[in-house]
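Re: the 188-residue chain
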Amino acid sequence: MILALFSFIIALALPAFEAASAVDTPCPQVRVIDGDTLDCAGRRIRLDGIDAPERAQICRSATLRDYPCGSESTRALARLVGSGTIRCVPTGTDRYGRTLATCFGVGGRNLNQAMVCSGDAIAYRRYSMAYLGAETVARSGGCGLWAGSFTAPEDWRHGGRGSYAPPPATANGAPCDAAAPLRCPKPR
């Protein structure tokens, strides 16, 4: 009985251990899949705590024009990743078998946080509260998605087409450039 229980525990822990050991190293060959997913030498990594528009998703700008926000989010992550080596710290595995991780780019910049702070992704409240401060900066500054209206990526994936209202006209002028780390609060 004890041996069976021990075997069961090992079987549950092994995939997470394998994912952690395979990813918690520098990754020089990175391919951006979309605004919250990377491929690191053949292993899919989902940026933990954030949700970005899907590649085919369309949003509405402040001037009421439709634009490919999913493609823009993908390009934003590609710019952050650049051509340098990134490092991802695993936090778990999602239901699709992807490694959940917080990833860091050049200079140790938290890519998850930078995507939310620039408005190219939103905090994924269902799974984490870590990036709520970064989302507040983006929302109050009317950055990225928050400059117009959009359907939350999770709702869009499930066929919903509702939208958030644009931020109030009295935005405080927070910078929309995630390169301003002092303005984008550290994740909790």
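The domain at 23-157 is CATH 2.40.50.90 (OB fold (Dihydrolipoamide Acetyltransferase, E2P)).
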